[in-house]
Amino acid sequence: MAKLRVALLFGGRSSEHSISCATAAGVLGAIDRSRYEVISVGITKAGQFVPAVDDASKWALRKGELATVEFAGELIEFALDGSRELTSISASGKRTSLGAVDVVFAVLHGPFGEDGTIQGFLELGGYPYVGNGVFASAAAMDKEFTKSLLQAANVPVTPHLVVTKAQWLNDPESTLARVRQLGKGPFFVKPARAGSSVGVSKVSDFKDFAAAAMLALENDTKFVVENQVIGRELECAVLSSFDSAPVRVSVAGEIVVHGREFYDFEAKYQDEASVDLIIPAELTASELAQMQHIAARAFDAIGGYGLARVDFFKTEHGFLVNEINTMPGFTPLSMYPKLWQASGLGYSELINQLVDLALVRN
């Protein structure tokens, strides 16, 4: 039987470029080569589609070293005529067909990849692709609209407010007055459309708020302010089912941070000793069932398809959804595949099911 041809697309223009490379390394190392022929395509920080080395070790995340997709003279072109054909274009302009692909596995994080843009591009070209569609991707990337959709579906979310760049620059005092209404703090200031804790600050003193706001605005044109939630940080992985069956939700995992203010970029990707990932999390059967039910409702509320990780706080008053990540980290050490492994679904089989879901949808 002929192998399915999978284009693995990674890198991208966002601040999470190197995290996407690490996710690609995880997929390259685990995908079943007896079933798939993989064509690795990187996107440079400038947005060029280029051939990428099919070598997990090149793209893996290392302490103090972040992989980057570079342009070396050759480009990859995706046909937009429905043929699903990829073409290599040499530095001299020579065009060589790489043939048609069966499915695209875009492991892009952040803007210009996880936010509906690449999904729309692939739909224009008629490419089956892994994961969430245009709307769900765009909605979940924007913390303002994620929370609005969840609130409309009666899914409990963290208290918050949204501040635009114009509001902050033109009338910072009104913004600070709104922030004070959230509570006494500390507060978290987050770019509305960024991930991996890029541009996020914890503000314990209002004199530091302006610096936090400007850092967030370096990454977006609006930011979200949340009062610190006292509670446990928990996560569930969600996976679509076949034949219109209800979505599947994994066991829960817990994040415990040591010696840091919060679960920031360094803690996630450079300082493993500061974080314990506890799988499965210690919950009663009733608590786990409630958390899984809320995760499924949140996924459905954004129109999710394929996969997502739903992040929670468990407080003394119950569960609050913090965020939904529609393309979570996918390295062997990442929470998403580890949660499924603990739920009885191995890494390679998880990839198989995601590819099959992409083909079923299209």
CATH superfamily of the largest domain: ATP-grasp fold, B domain
Q: So, CATH architecture of the largest domain? A: 2-Layer Sandwich
Structural class: alpha+beta
What general outline do the C-alpha atoms trace?
globular
**What would the average pLDDT be, to the nearest integer?**
91
Helix content: 25-40%
Distance between the termini: 21 Å
Strand and helix map with partners:
Layout: E1 4-11, H1 17-30, E2 36-43, E3 49-51, H2 56-59, E4 75-78, E5 85-89, E6 95-100, E7 103-106, H3 117-125, H4 134-141, H5 143-152, E8 160-164, H6 165-170, H7 172-180, E9 187-191, E10 201-203, H8 209-217, E11 222-227, E12 232-239, E13 248-257, H9 265-269, E14 275-278, H10 285-301, E15 307-315, E16 318-325, H11 335-342, H12 347-361
Parallel strand pairs: 1-2, 1-7
Antiparallel strand pairs: 2-3, 4-5, 5-6, 8-11, 9-10, 9-11, 12-13, 12-15, 13-14, 15-16
Describe the structure.
With 362 residues, the protein is α+β, with helices and mostly antiparallel strands. The chain contains 12 helices and 16 strands. The protein has 3 domains: 126 residues, Rossmann fold (3-Layer(aba) Sandwich); 136 residues, D-amino Acid Aminotransferase, Chain A, domain 1; 68 residues, Dna Ligase, domain 1 (2-Layer Sandwich), CATH 3.30.1490.20. The strands form 4 sheets. A 5-stranded antiparallel β-sheet has the order 14-13-12-15-16. Strand 15 and strand 16 form a beta hairpin. The radius of gyration is 21 Å and the shape is globular. About 3% of the residues have low confidence.
